[in-house]
Amino acid sequence: MNKLINLSLVLLFSMNLTAAKYPKREMRAVWVATVANIDWPSSASLSTAQQQKEFIELLDLSKEYNMNTVVFQIRPAADAFYASKFEPWSQWLTGKQGKKPEPFYDPLTFASVECRKRGLDLHVWINPYRAVSDVSNNRTAADHISNTHPEWFITYGKTKFFDPALPQTRDFVAKVVSDIVRRYDIDAIHMDDYFYPYRIAGVEFPDDQSFKTYPGGYAANQRDDWRRNNVDLIIKQLHDSIKAIKPWVEFGISPFGVWRNIANDPAGSRTKAGQTNYDDLFANILKWQQEKWIDYITPQVYWEIGKEVADYKIIAKWWSKNTYGAQLFIGQAPYRIDPEAKEKSWHSAEEIIRQIKLNRKYHQIAGSMFFSAKFMRKNPMGLRQKLLEHYYRYPALTPVNPGVDRLLPQKPVDAVISEENGQLQFSWGAGENTKSFVIYQFKRGPWLKAKNASHILLTTAEHSVTYSLDSQTDPQRYKYVITAISQTNAESKPVSFVTVDK
Fold this sequence. Notes:
Immunoglobulin-like, 2 domains, eight-stranded parallel sheet
């Protein structure tokens, strides 16, 4: 993203409502960005136990906000927050690139297990092209790809990038992504707005030699089209690689907030952004949506309603009309809430509430992402209370993506409640195509009365849970049912719990 981010984006779904007031399927995403230790880990010197404790605290925070999805940055600069077969451990994790955690653990495996326990989906965020954030200050491991294949890289400003024109770049990144998808229990691969880098005034990206070597049929006056094609090629290859391994794993992009200004294209938005996806980052987002190469988009609309050059209201409406079937979430900016902010709109959390209210006017806007965990944790100007009061009052299930072939889960089996020593133990078994479960609690009556979000008691991938027996849980007062959720977030028919004597 154009801002360093770590954990905490909330995606809020306005589709698949079970009641006008309480949408059941709202996506609440938590971004875990690990660049520069902004959110997690808070320091590269933390022990394994401290890292795990911090991570769990952030997951629990996401549940406090009634979120349902975590987006975890695992590849900030051709390095890894997991046991990669191809890239060294990240310096942001252990303080030195190539140094593994001690005592050893795999953070991505840990994240997956802990997310599943809480019924949270897990999206993993990779940066496709950035290889060395700061060539003057970052020390790379001997086996870092920029050292073993220096001919694949271009330095622009202080950053070293994979050359987007090279087939070797596309093949290597696709190999890395394929390895992640194959080995880990994840729900999506996520990329943000770092394609060709943001322009440096007066400095041209140095790809003359690459253009000569791999012109791809483009003429000298078509350099920009050639660059866009280079990015198209990697997006398609990544899509194909992901879907060949696990068709249910989604591929999502979080682009800069403006595709093109209307001054450059009548199809663009009525904005005056200084840089845009199409003209400066060479990311033709609309084409990727049209070609079905990506499953969702999250444009970073980090501006306020009424901003002259980039009005949130105008941009949100524009994206809602240009989804081409991809799911659309809007990136919100709680990091901007500050009583000392230059723009008065950000002097309270009400700007975010107004934006979410606006989003819900457009059925194509499936949700919102909040940047970042650091600020969600700080709860700027009472944002959490306002969100929970207005829109996030109840848990919400991760929504079905209509662009992904649906897997239907079998119903849970052997759902029983047993009472012992003042405790209620719920236990159940899983059928096929099951990722997690949802337990509903409601006063006795028809099942349909249980289906709005206010009756969701728990989401988890576990097969048992224990509660204290009291007036808030007594099976004589409440009925409990359980459903299964598939890898594509389809929900099974409910199964009633049966109370048994131990």
